[in-house]
Design a protein that fits this description.
Elements: E1 6-9, E2 14-17, E3 25-30, H1 41-59, E4 63-68, H2 86-94, H3 98-115, H4 131-143, E5 147-150, E6 153-156, H5 158-164, H6 175-180, E7 201-206, E8 222-224, H7 228-238, E9 242-248, H8 252-267, E10 272-278, E11 281-283, E12 286-287, H9 298-303, H10 315-323, E13 331-333, H11 335-354, H12 368-380, H13 385-404, H14 411-428, H15 441-458, H16 462-475, E14 477-482, E15 485-490
This protein binds one RNA strand of 74 nucleotides through helix 1, helix 6, helix 8, strand 12 and helix 11.
Length: 491
RNA sequence: GGUCCUGUGGCCGAGUGGCUAGGCAGAGCUCUGCAAAAGCUUGUACAGCGGUUCGAAUCCGCUCGGGACCUCCA
């Protein structure tokens, strides 16, 4: 842990040196998916971004407890669905048990996200499995006088809370302005009349008769409010105050603001020391939205089956593409951008594969420590993966040059470059060659074929050697004739 | 309407007072039976208009785009 890691803290609006509460240990919480539909492109960015944080903290020697929740109790719909929650609605439409839907999309999420080589969280709590904890927390908030019951529902009293605390400290919202309202366009939520103030938010909602997802509570048969699960579960597994809480920028308000209010309302303590938010993605410069027809599911992306996609893009290409941008900048997905990422990634992984083949010399023409240092410097500066990757490409340039014989490297430098490059690419950035389902016999078969091809080439029978190359290419095996003989890769 | 972020070369995308980001694409060369790969060389960009400064893509103001949140959303 020699490195000083600086992270941008949304709460302070500045970069801060990261110091954990308990030396050597980090508690990390990430808002996970609401499992009412297939995972889409929007899910990929926070998953990958916070995977990098998780991996880098590990790399620095911290023991990380990484908690990522699954929201399977649904959230209120505010429009035509009249308070029916998302999962319940989906269940009705698809004629399934609500938990069947949640299970299906939870599995689906795991499947698609793991393809991006995202490490699993240490704990993945489900909201439905923590109803008791949520009820306990709501009771605590009520006891402390920051919540009230109204017609079987419980609301957080934002105005009362703000008298002694600061509601808006994370998002920069001003309570008076929120109360004044956002103009005529603002729609009135169902149940508004039960609240003392329009800014109050639900901790517990009484279920309407047709509402199929419900649990018993001291107040009514109902379901927890939008924000309470994260507060209850992060508190349970990471403590009343923990190190880092992550999520998309869209969750900053109201979700994370309300989390703070709830936790302070219940425990009197600030729940989180470092709040981190990733920026959003756009598609061809436009925001992704269901109504805009540019909502791309991960499975469609991997298969290239969406109408906006010119080809399939592998999960590793997506990962590489996401890492080429800084996590707090918006990122635009386009065919051109993704194709460039695909090629760039190949270049990086090819260089890594060349490392064992390099010959050493008495001197080095490049300073290897510069490459390594600049990489760490970039990561320590709020996880600037874009610059870290630029350093890795400088490493790739050196590797290629040594391989081509235009540069030299000492045995000691090669050793440190190999260790560093492999470690950074594979373990920190989590980039790897994608499995193509080969078994070991392919190696043997290929060497036989290349040996035979070498013979016909020696006889200058280029028609035959080209035919072999073309036929192998048709199968997905690409032959490269180099000065020391032919090599092959899978396309 | 309010609050906040943002606008970089053909494309993506770092940087944020003086010093080459990087990737992809393009051009030339080397290598090569051809191809591929690789290497070398090459581009002089910072929305517009003002201002501050010895010096601004970088700070300030205005204008015009794009986006986020304010309402379920990653």
């Amino acid at each position: 842990m020699q490195q000083n890691l600086y992270l941008y803290n949304s709460l302070k609006r500045t970069k801060e040196l990261f110091t954990p509460i308990t030396p050597g240990y980090v508690g990390l919480y990430l808002c996970g998916p609401t499992v009412y539909g297939p995972p889409h492109l929007g899910h990929a960015r926070p998953a990958v971004v916070f995977d990098i944080l998780n991996r880098y903290l590990h790399h620095l020697g911290y023991k990380v407890r990484f908690v990522r929740n699954v929201t399977d109790v649904g959230h209120l719909e505010n429009d035509a669905d009249e308070g029916e929650d998302k999962i319940a609605r989906k269940a009705r439409v698809e004629k399934l048990e609500p938990m069947e839907i949640a299970q299906l999309y939870t599995d689906n999420y795991h499947e698609e996200i793991e393809k991006l080589n995202v490490l699993k969280p240490s704990i993945e709590p489900r909201a439905s499995g923590h109803i008791i904890e949520q009820i306990a927390m709501i009771s605590q908030i009520m006891e402390n006088g920051f919540a009230y019951e109204s017609n079987g529902s419980v609301y957080f009293d934002v105005v009362k809370y703000n008298a002694t605390n600061h509601y808006g400290k994370l998002s920069g919202r001003v309570l008076e302005e929120l109360i004044a309202g956002a103009g005529e366009e603002r729609r009135e939520l169902e149940g508004q009349e039960e609240k003392r103030n329009r800014v109050d938010f639900a901790l517990w909602k009484k279920a309407s008769p047709e509402h199929i997802m419900r649990w018993p509570s001291p107040w009514s048969d109902g379901f927890p409010g939008w924000h309470i699960e994260c507060s209850a579960m992060s508190g349970k597994y990471l403590g009343e105050t923990f190190d880092i809480h992550g999520g998309g920028m869209d969750l900053l308000f109201p979700h994370h603001e309300c989390e703070i209010a709830q936790s302070v309302g219940a425990t009197g303590k600030d729940p989180v020391r470092y709040w981190m938010h990733n920026n959003m993605i756009t598609i061809n410069g436009q925001k992704m939205g269901k109504s805009l027809g540019n909502f791309i599911n991960l499975s469609e992306l991997y298969a290239g089956s969406h109408k906006l996609l010119e080809q399939a893009y592998s999960p590793m290409t997506i990962r590489f593409f996401i890492l080429q941008a800084h996590y707090r900048s918006p990122l635009d997905f386009s065919n051109e951008g993704l194709k460039a990422a695909e090629k760039g990634m190949k270049r990086m992984l090819n260089a890594k594969a060349l490392l064992p083949k390099l010959k050493t010399s008495a001197t080095s023409t490049s300073k290897i420590s510069d490459v390594i240092d600049s990489c760490y410097e970039a990561m320590n500066d709020d996880l600037n993966t874009a610059i870290a990757m630029a350093s890795l490409f400088e490493g790739a340039r050196i590797i290629n040059s040594v391989y081509a014989g235009t540069e030299t490297i000492t045995a000691a430098d090669l050793d440190s470059l190999s260790k560093f490059f492999t470690l950074f690419v594979e373990e920190v950035l989590g980039l790897k060659e994608e499995a193509l389902g080969d078994d070991s016999s392919v190696d043997g078969l290929m060497s036989i074929i290349l040996e035979l091809r070498k013979d016909v080439k020696a006889k200058k029978d280029f028609a035959a050697s080209d035919k072999i190359r073309d036929m192998l290419l048709a199968l997905g095996y690409k032959i490269k004739d180099e000065k020391d003989g032919a090599t092959w890769t899978r396309e």
